[in-house]
Batch of 4 targets.
Target 1
Amino acid sequence: MTALSLKNINKSFGPVHVLKDINLDVEDGEFVVFVGPSGCGKSTLLRVIAGLEDATSGEIRIAGEQVNLTPPSKRGIAMVFQSYALYPHLNVRGNLTLALKQERQPKTVIEERVVEASRMLGLEPYLNRYPSELSGGQRQRVAIGRAIVRQPKLFLFDEPLSNLDAALRMNTRIEIANLHRQLSASMIYVTHDQTEAMTLADKIVVLRDGRVEQIGSPMDLYNDPANRFVAGFLGSPSMNFLPADALTPGDPREMGLRPEDIRLEGGGPIAGTVTHVEQLGGDTNVILQTARAPLTIRLFGQHAIAPGNDVQFGYDPSRAYYFGDDGQRLRIE
Amino acid sequence: MNKARSNPLNTYAMHGALILYTLIALFPVFVILINSFKSRKAIFREPLALPDAESFSMIGYQTVMKQGDFFLYFQNSLIVTVASLALVLLFGAMAAYALSEYRFRGNTLMGLYLALGIMIPIRIGTVAILEMMVASGLVNTLWALILVYTAQGLPLAVFILSEFMKQVSDDLKNAGRIDGLSEYTIFFRLVLPLVRPAMATVAVFNMIPIWNDLWFPLILAPAEETKTLTLGSQVFIGQFVTDWNAVLSALSMAILPVLILYVIFSRQLIRGITSGAVK
């Protein structure tokens, strides 16, 4: 069954057309990530699904039911916000139970779900604390707990990790992935961070300027991007683009090379001067100025390369991507 | 304050200036207070002297208690002030919430219209207000005053509160909507507690002019049973003779309730004034 289906969704704020003809199906139990640069409409799309904004046109179905006119609380969704948005005047228990009390669930059910959610998230010691007495990570867990207790048909996450520091972000990311496995619930997750998108998603939706650029599994998008934007957006460091002309004279196309597909090779076709080296221990990133374009190269292991060195590199022609003038991928060699 | 960044001379100068200002500000209050405990002759002979055994006299307070129904005036002032403040805060906050939260046609225009009252003094409309009150039969009732003061206080309240309400996190309100809270619950339970400092600021700014006002009580409600404290005290000020003992005693007593209300609001007020500056 489809947990969510969007048909021809459009959204305008006055003259500004924010979402342009979005079509999407989310299968039951799927983890879908909306990713794109800021201002691409991904948060607006999430808010349209939640019912916090009305779609200008199009149809939204959650678990088969059309919900265009259903208020957010009746859509069977739960949302986790970037700023946590905990109720400051309620303690953790109050925050977890408020929605259930609004739904007039019996006391025993409420208690059962709170016990279950606080066990999953390790919130038992904090149930009587107020949000102001919790750390950022604990607040985010309460926010997630508030979503879990509702047992929604669809979880919505709006950049939930952006306010956490790097170490905590990784832990919470793993926790969310585990949670998805345990609950086998359908989840939609908005982020601008492609690492989060790649690590969490069953299916990634890449958005740009209110349009869906490509939908697919993380590895599909990585290995087989439909256009230059998707190719450049996923992967870190991002893909190098250079005129194909530089390597095969007379070729009008634009060529894309992933930094890890370029290797050190004396006498190789790519030559240039090293301008900067990032030694990460496990990897070495080399930034190179060639005659036509700057290149980023990712070498595994540690290499003794210093800025100012002149070096040569080779690449695997079968791992090169080609794009036309309109930015679309050209698949025929 | 950071010790490394302040030199002692600056600190002394700052405290000196503040103490000087406090003295200047409190001096009239002090003069009123000491003179209210002195006999008439002593007031005129040495207005700045403290009351001593010879000049001490409670005659002013006795006159006030005897003449007119002072406690009724007191009660009237209190009812008018508290009721007006409550209405200003309630309606001001509601209008401010609508302006800051909902997108609708003419939102900005409506905001400007509501703020217009800050620039136009309400007293310009006194004659029209009086005619309206006569027509509606509200003359010589406390309602006349409450309504006028509510109208007078609303523009500034809407202006200040809508600025503060814009700062309340959208996520919090949306979380409430997803959890099934009604717009009223979101307003009263989530938003209002977060703008409490701003509410206190508005309350203090409105309270003192209302309490001290003489103009509207004199015009709209001069009857004996609706007189406010300020108006009641005027009986002691005659064209030819003024009973200074009574005036000063009445004023001294009039300070008290405002002082109490101010202390209640002031903790919130200080937070309100500094809340934007220090985060």
Target 2
Amino acid sequence: MHVPDGFLDAPTSVATGLVAAGTVAVALRGARRELDERTAPLAGLTAAFVFAVQMMNFPVGAGTSGHLIGGALTAILVGPWTAVLCMTVVLVVQAVLFADGGLTALGTNVTLMGLVAVVLGYGVFRLLVRLLPPTRTAVLAGAAAGALISVPASALAFVGLFAVGGVADVSLGAVAATMGGIHLFIGAGEAAITVAVLGAVLTVRPDLVHGAAHLRRPTDLAPRPQVAPAAGAAR
Amino acid sequence: MGRGHGGALGAVYVPGSSVVHRLAPHVKLVAVVAFALVVVATPVHAGWAWAAYAAFGVLVLAVAAVAGLTAGRLARGLAVELPFVVFALLLPFVSRGPRVEVAGLSLSESGLTAGGGLLAKATLSVLAATVLAATTEARELLRGLERLRLPAALVQILSFMIRYADVVSGELRRMRVARESRGFRARHLGALRVLGPAAASLFVRSYERGERVHLAMLSRGYTGRLAAAPAAAVRPGSWALGLSLPLAAAAVLGTGMLVG
């Protein structure tokens, strides 16, 4: 769900636009560290993955289904800066090609779903991974917590923006409680999907998971059979 | 291949040769953003706001008519707005301030205005953006963004995303067809044991495709930037034509402020 045009007043939209532009500028530098000159193709393909996976329906019971937002998952898979770029690119395409999220609200959407969701989700993940023992379970638990928190956090950030530049006169406490409550539920779904996807990637290609780099061990080389040099080898 | 190569992205563009189709992409981008800005800047609480919104609506629909877009295409564009229709409909119930009785329901006056204004603004902007997307190819839009000085690295990422979004979505679709032809039905949360690994293999395949694409580019002499033909100059006439939409809207807004 993206913020459309006219939801926030002009100063708030401009301010979030500047925040988003700054974020993207920093992320472009950071992504170069994560992916060097492979940035463009790899970030592009990861963004295509995020775009596609957002169209995938996961049943959550009672006949309803939800989809992945993917901020935390992408950050853990390819690193936070690349993830910010991927989410930004997905939001740009959704706004320009599908009118999903207003063009004047693009900065707001990038701030909420690119910056807040990714940075907070990844931050919580990093914190837990550092505190817990270096195991696969700890990585998955960190991912679950990161994904769970990223969704209500960006919803509450939206409420904050709405408090500053909203165009409707509603009681903020009620909006914050409703948005936070609904998005905590959505975040639980996000966490379940994130763990399912991340667990499967960790099983087949653990080397592709940026957030599990500390679990990687150098493979033991197979011992080379010792052959005594033959007596006439130097001839 | 009945629908051509169009996946999600390809289905957006409606081929045509109208004036709107032929305008330079960055001119159209600027025009649509400027139009959205004018719409957003119109004060909801002014008495003449509704006349202004109606005038904006006539302007966008006129452009859509010139571009030869059908009502169906515009309606499909509007579908993304649905979640916010719900929000706007809720506003009169949850807003504060003096209340009015409408059909036995106690509604907030300011909530009614705010909800209606939100709906009108969002609808107008979505219509304008739909006209832009329906008359400009994704590749052209990208060139437009490039000419508007979007950072080159971001444009490159965008171009890879646009090129491969339909490939990756196609892969996702084939995986779904394969799952369902084996009798899989996603009914409850337990389906995650199947869908999780499916999404994971989609990620692994996308990432590996990215690595292959990068190697193929390196072997063709890629040095970190993409070669592009020099951009053609845009005549002042087409700027004037493109900007006539936001300028007309701004004229409506100005008139409203003077008269109202």
Target 3
Amino acid sequence: MQSQIQSSSPTKSLLRTVLDAMLIPFLAILTAVVLGGIIIVLVRGNPFLAYAGLIQGSFGSARALSETSVWATPYIFAGLAVALAFKGGLFNIGAEGQLALGAVATALIGYALPEWLGIDIPAIIHLPLAIIVGMAAGAFWAGIVGFLKAYTGGHEVINTIMMNYIALNSISFLLNGPMKDRDPNNVIARTPLIAESARMPVIFDGLRIHWGFVLALLAAFLVWWMLSKSTLGFEIRTVGLNPDAAKYAGVNVKRIIILTMALSGMLAGLAGALEVTGLNYRHELGFSIGYGFDAIAIALLGKSHPLGVVLAAILFAAMRNGATRMQFLTQLPVDLISMLQALILLFVAADAIIRYIYRIRVQSERVVLTRGWGG
Amino acid sequence: MDWKRFGFIFLIIVVLFGVVVLVGQVKSPPIVIITSMLATTIAVATPLTLGALSGVFCERAGVVNIGIEGMMLSSAFFGWLAAIYMFHIFNFGVGISITVGALFAMVAGALMALLLAVLSITYKVDQIIGGTVINILAVGLTGFLNRQLFFGSGSVFGGNVPNSPGVLPTIHIPIREIFSPLCGDAASCLQVVTSINKVFDQKPIAISAILLVFIAHYVLFNTRWGLRTRAVGEHPKAADTVGINVIKMRYANVLIGGALAGLAGAYFTIESVPSFEPLLTNGRGFISLAAMIFGNWTPIGSWTAALVFGASQALNINIQIFRDVIPPQWAFLQQSYVVGLIPYILTMIILTGIIGRTTPPAADGVPYEK
């Protein structure tokens, strides 16, 4: 086991290492696409037309590219959130709730703060403040789970899921009650629009791509730097690999567990904050559904490496975005995408199946992802 | 299960029932409210009980199963689908259709469990990841097939969702008929007997869930099979040394667990309501897991924990009847979103171990390598 944790021998070139790392995910995607094609044939669809539509709809035009980046933005953040937690040996299934809560908190600051203070707040203060509050909300929500894990041993998998339901129930309450858009014509559970001063400037007129995408790429770089170059990152990875060893090496394991969860939640909360300030200018009930599971799939497909997460997020974003075009061309339901993604995840998780199908002998990096109820 | 934990469970149930009795006493007598709460509690605890039993079998054999949610969801869908096919395409009667539906749900649950078993036992995938794969796959699969089969333009039913043949009937246990002659003409006595009868008027899956709790208890602790299952989950190497086939035992128990989760799924679409909607399980699979942990991986303990969650759900359902008489200082009870938080918060409190620590099987979550 110990030798498998060592990633690659130092004699290998960087390119070779990257290609080796990408081999299994690539083959997993390929296998899922082939299986997906068979399913499409079984339901009497045309797989070639479907996949052509998928590619056309996601990369075929400036507008398609812009929309793909819009989808990719929360995916990158949420994927990074799950990946970061994985590195620390924690499984954050609650990205969805943290994201939604971040969005609600940002929206609240965005529309209500000027009313409370009775003044117009300059954008240079209002916008960062709204985003920071969203991040803090996500960090707080996940931090609770980290605290429970560190001090009581309550397992983070169940607790993050419970926190999801608590977040979604509370948000339903808020958006149907105290925070509901007071426009007399409004029947939807959503917040009012945020003030102009809390909105991010648009990049291109007429396209929905927003600065959040740039920030997402930046965040991926920062997470990579933090994990591989900083002391904190080293401690997080050590706790993830072996908490007992970390403890003997003098790492404050409890502190790292709480910090890892909080950072993870902060990334998810940031995803929500940027959706509000950069794209929708409000939070609407139900828009965040499904991000949590997608984020897990993205983190696994990207092998918890920030660069891998970015690529996987763009792939998932392209599939979601292209699905509409696919549906238009072939009348296949958009939900086909969910199944394709589940298949990809299946093959990535069970890479032994892929190794068996394609007769691959090389051992790739084997990472400890989660621990049982006792840990 | 120790007395501290039973005491906690009892206390919570008394509080939850007490709230409804206090609010509703201006409208109905306490006995009617209590029996109605009990009846609802037992009914809504059914999927949680079965889900927890599913977890008990898997984890006693050493396989962590967080895919119960996904198994429930897919079996709810496939059971419902089978019932509709039997009824509309093959023109069977209502009774046969829904029975086949329920059986099919169990098969679907077992098939999802087979996938978990292949992933986690044969390919030694991290078991929590394996369970998550099941959960995500179930969402994708049921969402896609639901849309494709029923709402697509080229679908079998041409875009119209056909009526489901119905739900399983209530089994009437004639307590009222037997005991009412003893009451004579006393109206209050008749009311008590009628109310109590309501508690026992349950549907087949709810009744079988309770029977299965005791069967599971007997099997796990009083049979050779149970001993072997527990050995495989506690110390697989020792079990292997004395000639128990670890892999086979694990596969078998995970499949049993899958079938139980399948029966839980059948509860939603075959017993409770005759329809399917995406994501209808709504976290019940995960709450089952919490019930299993709180029940310390025992069938009876898990069942009592499931009853607590059932009671908090029953509170939310029954309090709606008394919406108009809720005193203003208790106005939060009108918010079903707020009352709906109780099971989730309870789960987290239970997991902290304040109410007594629990011990998982020693080899739970560890793939067996010879």
Target 4
Amino acid sequence: MSSSVAGVLAVALLVAALWVTYRPFGDYMYRVFTAKRHLRVERAIYRLTGVNPDAGQRWGVYARSVLAFSLVSVLLLYLLQRLQEHLPLNLGFGAVGPALAWNTAVSFMTNTNWQAYSGESTMGHTVQMTGLAVQNFVSAAVGIAVAIAVVRGFARRRSPVAAGGPGGPGGRGAGSRDDVVGTGDELGNFWVDLTRTVIRILLPVCVVVAVVLIAGGAIQNLHGNRVVSTLAGGHQTITGGPVASQEAIKEFGTNGGGFYNVNSAHPFENPTSWTNLFEIYLLLAIGFSLPRTFGRMVGDRRQGLAIVAVMAVLALGSFAVNAAFQTAHHGTVPVAVGAATEGTETRFGVPDSALFASSTTLTSTGAVNSFHDSYTSIGGATLLFNMMLGEVAPGGTGSGLYGMLVLAIVTVFVAGLMIGRTPEYLGKKIGSREIKFASLYFLATPAIALLGTGVAMGLPGERAGMLNSGAHGLSEVLCAFTSAANNNGSAFGGITVNTTWYNTALGLAMLFGRLLPMLLVLGLAGSLARQHPVPATAGTLPTHRPQFAGMLGAVAVIIVALTFFPALALGPLAEGIH
Amino acid sequence: MFARLPGWARQHLAALRILLVFTVVVGLAYPLAILAVAQLPGLHHRADGSFVTRADGQRVGSSLIGQSFTDADGNPIARYFQSRPSAAGDGYDPTSTSASNLGPEDVVDTFDDPAMRGTDESRQSLLTQVCARSQAVGALDGVDGRRPYCTASGVGAVLAVYHAGPGYDGRVTRVVSVNELCPARPFLTTYAGVPVRCRTLTDDIVAGQRVVIRGDAPTHPAVPADAVTASASGLDPQISTAYADLQVRRVARVRGLPTGQVSALVRDHTAGRSLGFLGEPAVNVLDLNRALDALTPARR
């Protein structure tokens, strides 16, 4: 079998697996967020922390809870790193420097998992387990919580006509209104959403996944370095660590922060070609299933189907371009080699590496099983493009869904301009307040990415951080800031970023790239929640049909193309076309 | 007890407490529970690191982590199958895992300038690394090591072409072979009617138009792709079946074994694609070399 045919079959299996779990997993998450009852362990957590789980929060309170949790997360993770020399199982590693500790703390809190350090030579087991891995769980949960809050903003006070209409939830119609806590414009309770996501979704899945990964060969121990005498008569130092437990949440929570420097290319993190596909599935699973949850919560599953269709088309299109350029291997070195194998592992091969690379940049994961810096020019450009798309196909846990919903608002606005009607989405009018929130949402991240790149290129010392020169060097800097602002975390790894300037600047980019869009989208949800829904009329644009889905996809691509084309033209496109 | 605190302080206190609870639940209980499960027979060996041992019980490595099969000077040991090039530390160093991170158009070598004392700024371009590795493997295994865009001497065949006018316009005034430092003889005598010179440290390579010369090497070189490119992890335990097959003749000759027997061993240590279509078939080098040593023990 040729490797291209094998690659197509791998994609087919992945799509089938995602399709099979879309419904049950989406429905499960729907039940998690709409259930009235708390589990016993959850009650214990609420009691311990003094949270009233039955109090609804308006968008302002919800947002302040997110901010408070983010702040203490950064502080605790910063402290753990700074105090590493006093912690057990530190493997002899001392305190992490202030700039790097700041960068890493922000990086893991924001679900970016940009890594300016090398895991095996910086972080002991305690920081990995109780610092980094904890943020892997909770930062993913924060994203999902915010997405659910935003969906509640849409779902609130749905008119009975729309909820019970054809294609509506039918017998479970009452359930879709049950998620409304209180009677006003509350968006739910952040602490409850956070706790339920961790306890009912992330943790149980990760327990199973970690054991499966160990069966594949991933390690789970607390050893330090062990020295062996090699066959050739030399010595090799083999590392240990609680890798499997961390790998599971790293993929499932679209975090991407590897235990080791080389991330999922490391044989201890990703030992075989089947663990590779399994990890790709995991990092896409939540993103592709949340639209189902969304559809159930707004009482119309077709809305979820439309969203997931757009995500799938964008993802498959992007992967097809990437894989085509990687297998065709244009460019001087790939032609000299005869394949784009630089920076790829033998067991994965080029097509499955491209699949991982596309998936990791289409979500906010940023884990890598091959090194994007060595990709062909256009292959690398598609990965950059994926991140610039704002990671909505399917995007990070939660952030992909709310990103797509804001895009949908922009789309109905554009459609409204065309036909001269006040735009509405899911029965809510999109007025000037809503469109301002949506526009700011889409300006925030590109502004951070492009300004950051511009400043770095303007400073001679920072420009020198590039490993490759010329257009490819610009791609490295552009990738760093795009990845940070979009909370992806993957890199064109040649660039030297463990400097005070880059650690600080990229830390700020990650922080604002995460929190600004979150606040804007929560504000949008708050404003939607206050609205009384308008009944659908003959003039209402149906948002579950292919026509709307097509427009939504086009809006996503055009916004990105207009914003980032000049930067892409100077970087990877200039390199690829000559 | 916290009721008298202002609202914002209570909120941060709740945040801190819930974070501490999660630190205990998912930061300690979860990994330790997985660690406990990992002690089960069947899982323990893998969770420990898939270590492999010699007959005397001493660990010689992990079957998941590649090794260098080179002597103290870095030269390949002929009786062993060779692994891929590695960018992890000095090669296959698990404490310093890395890929090369060099891009597809990284074709110009940097040479050390003796005027800059105390620093060695020399760096081989990815193209030159590929060319040099191909030559070395070709020489070791007795096949043609030529590749497109490589010179016969094993560096990247790249010219800097200087024009009379701006924007690479006008007649060609000067041509430099950028990866051949003087006094090397350039791989090409003339380009566009102008003699090709070797490179000096004072040449401003960036000012010239970069031209790569394809040469007459076959499109499908005899030395496989994975033999000339560094892996992603720098610890790749495997090589392609093509690279393994290429090495069979040499290993069989040095060990005095029939080629068929070595080929059979290669097949025994080849992992096919998972489920028949995931990844690529690959040969585990450490396991293969251990099997060979068991057959014909190395003289130490």
